[in-house]
Amino acid sequence: MERLYTQKLDIGYGELSIVKDLNISIPSGKITALVGANGSGKSTILKTLARIMKPSGGQVFLDGKSIHQQSTKEVAKQLAILPQNPTAPDGLTVSELVTYGRFPHQKGFGSLTKEDKEIVQWAISMTGMVDFYDRPVDQLSGGQRQRAWIAMALAQGTDILFLDEPTTFLDMAHQLEVLKLLQKLNEEENRTIVMVVHDLNHATRYAQHMVAISRGTVMAEGTPAEVMTPEMLRKVFNIEADILTDPRTGVPLCLPYELSHAVENKQPASSLVQPAAQAVQEEERKLVGTR
Predict the structure, then answer these.
(1) How many alpha carbons fall within 13 Å on the CB side of residue 149?
(2) Dist CA 278 CA 265 (whole Å)
(3) What are φ and ψ of residue 23, in 5° steps?
(4) Per the domain annotation, does 69 fall within a domain?
C-alpha cells in the first residue's frame, strides 16, 4: 500500500459538501498532477492531503496513521507544502527563507546545528540559488522566487512535496524552469511530488500519474495516456479537443478547438468554495510559519 492515501474522504465548509467519499492513493516516488476546471475541488483536496484542512468525514493516512491525528511538527518532518503565491516578509533573504525549513527539526528555540546549515546549503545548491544566497526574496524574478520557496520546502528534509499551482503567474520560460526543477527532484532525489496543475500539457509532460477531478469527484486516474482522453476532457473541462502524441516525449498533447455541448447548464463550482477561502489561507499561513 502507498504511503499516502485516503479512505472515504469527505470535505466541506459547514453544511456545504465539496468532496464526497474520495478514495485515492498517491504513488510513492512519482509526480502526481491533480487537474480539473476552476473550482473543481483539486486545491481543496491537496490542502486536505497536506493536513491544512480537516475533513468532515473519512481519513487521510500517512504511513498507516491518520494524518489529522498527528502533530503539525510530526507531519512537517514527513511532508512539505508550497501554497499558491506564498509571500515572504520584506527584506528576507534567500538563505534566511530556506532556514525556515529546518524549524520542524529544531528543539525549542535552538539555533541551527551544523547538520541544519549543511542541509540549507544543499537545498540552495540543488535549486540553483547559490548566486542569490544573500539576495532579498522580494527582489527576485518570479521563477527565482519559486525556486527559493522550493528550496525552503526541500530543507525540511521530507520525501513528499505538495505544490498548489507552482507556475501560476509565471511566463513560459519560468514555468519550464520550475517544472524541470521538480522533475529533477523526482528523478535524482526520488521525491514524491503532488501538484495542482492548470496546464494539461504540463501535467502530461512532467507527471507520471494524473488525477482528473470534477465537482470533488475523481473522473479519471492513471498514467497521462490513460487519463488524457476526449471523453475525460468533455466531462471535466467541457471542451472538445484533439489528442496528439508529442514526437519528443511520446506523451499525449491536448489541442482544444471548441466548447463541448455535452454538458449544458454546468454551474461553476468556484462559487461553492469561495466562502471559506480566507479561512483556508489563514491556516496555510499558520502551517507554513510553523515549518
Answers:
(1) 27
(2) 28
(3) -130, 105
(4) no
Contact 95, 110 (CB under 8 A): no
CA 289 to CA 291: how far, in whole Å? 5
Nearest alpha carbon to residue 182 among 157, 161, 212: 161
Between β-strands 4-13 and 79-82, what pairing exists: parallel, antiparallel or unpaired?
Answer: unpaired
Report yes or no on 137 lying in a domain. Answer: yes
DSSP for 126-188 reads HTT-GGGTTSBGGGS-HHHHHHHHHHHHHHTT-SEEEEESTTTT--HHHHHHHHHHHHHHHHH
Structural domain span for residue 138: 86-156
User: What CA–CA distance (Å, rounded) separates 165 from 182?
Assistant: 12
Q: Please give the model's pTM, rounded to 2 decimal places.
A: 0.87
Q: What angle do CA 185, 189, 195 make, to 5 degrees?
A: 40
Per-residue pLDDT of the chain (291 residues), as tens digits, is: 689 999 999 999 888 899 999 999 999 999 999 999 999 999 999 999 999 999 999 999 999 999 999 998 899 999 999 998 899 999 999 999 999 999 988 876 668 999 999 999 999 999 999 999 999 999 999 999 999 999 999 999 999 999 999 998 899 999 999 999 999 999 999 999 999 999 999 999 999 999 999 999 999 999 999 999 999 999 999 999 999 999 999 999 999 999 997 544 444 444 444 444 454 555 445 445 444
C-alpha 221/C-alpha 126 separation (Å) is 31
Cell digits for 259? 466548447
For the chain, give the number of residues. 291
Quick check: is 183 in a domain? Answer: no
Residue 148 inside a domain? The answer is yes
Q: In Å, how far from its chain's centre is CA 175?
A: 14
